[in-house]
């Protein structure tokens, strides 16, 4: 026969009761207080008046238990002894237990509120599903997009911005990260955080997803759990949103969604998963195109870093001006004194079609939206009086050719992430160009080759060599013939989830590389991909170009959420062929060194069918003075033979 474990049974029973919450705990404490009062009353009952009966005795015991002030009123040794015991028990049971239970309940309640399990009741809000390295930057870009945000709120009839973020587990660290972002600051107090995962339909109801004006789904980092990739989670989220919209009662509109998909092969699946209005940002493709264009044109990353960050100077805006219908692009050249017209976006049905660097005589039609480069939304206000008095037409000359790569371009890639297969695919699209790529990384060679084999139709013009080594080891770099390469790319590791650790390897690798580059007469073009913008300051003493992937993607996500045309504009700029930003020497335009007003540069570029954006000084000692985009029209720019003109051209 088993021995009865009475003690363990009682402890287990009490445990099961106490976990039921504060109300049950208070009930048991009340029963314990009543039991102590009853025992105390029975013990003091024989001492006589004023506890002559059981009721009076129990009340006497309860008063001593709950209020220590009665201790001095008692007479007689026995009565004082019982009163002292009851007073001590009162401190322990009555006060101690009550304070402990209420404090625990309050802490649990506050923590529950902080985690954000309370459903929100909002309308026309901006919803971000998921928390990752891009979230705080995306929020900052939304808040800083004053002009776009104002028009966004006006379109939906909202008075103020309601921004809601769904994170897996809301913690005080999330709030602190938002507050520490200089683009957000005190605005973090107005941001609503809710706990949940985007792939759970119940969690989507918690953030009132169906009533959102725009939903942003940023992609998380890759992990070793490759069967459930970030793209799979994004598509599952889209399916959940689609099902919720279809099942909702009434004529529920599908909310507008901006989703980030890393693998280009899954973009079509994303569009099939959601029936409502949606823009998909192919993140791997975007970053790979930036890197590819920088390989072909050294210094271009500086231009795109400015255009893709509100924390710097210029940005692209897209806005409709009904009063200019029927006018030509040339008629509007002087109507925006503080902006540069890049072209327009025209809607063919529901899809926006960007038309950049169009001919000066191009006529604007109804619903066309102008694409402008400006410092702020206040700089894109139309000067109607100027638009009605256009300048004389410019005589167009024969268009200049765009210089193409010649010979075999040798590229050294240090590190590995999921942008590299997309980079190889992008380089394959450049016709008549040959590339010899060497990849040095600790990521297994077999897995790299397997990733690259999934690319459809890799061009035979691209040769790839793999080395399974750690480039942070200076001996490995010394064995490589650095001088034989035209471009060296250091990428942020895709296997390290912490952006600080991933950037640490990239930066240390670059410092080791710089020691070898100092000995060379002709240095290759070096490009770094970082994950944390704060780490860019560590490289100010060097001349390396930097691409900060999360910052670029955050700007695209935020800009596309507020204005759908933004995605199509940057797609047009990034892809091979069509409108492209390039550099021109002053000799190509037939200009002489000296001080030249920016207006004269614009006129000269127009003669060759191009648009002048600014100037680039590659040899400037200060990085902040390297690039001057959209200067004042009458500003005299110091032009030397080393200065390059930044222009928008069309590549056929």
From TrEMBL:
It is a multi-pass membrane protein. GO terms for cellular component: endomembrane system. InterPro entries: CASTOR/POLLUX/SYM8-like, CASTOR/POLLUX/SYM8_dom, NAD(P)-bd_dom_sf, RCK_N. The keyword Transport applies. Residues 408-548 form the RCK N-terminal domain. GO terms for biological process: monoatomic ion transmembrane transport; potassium ion transport. Keywords: Ion channel, Ion transport, Membrane, Transmembrane, Transmembrane helix, Transport. The chain crosses the membrane at residues 21-45, 81-105. It comes from the Bacteria. It is found in: Endomembrane system. It holds the Pfam family Castor_Poll_mid. Belongs to the castor/pollux (TC 1.A.1.23) family. PANTHER family: ION CHANNEL POLLUX-RELATED. This is Trk K+ transport system, NAD-binding component. It comes from Algoriphagus ornithinivorans.
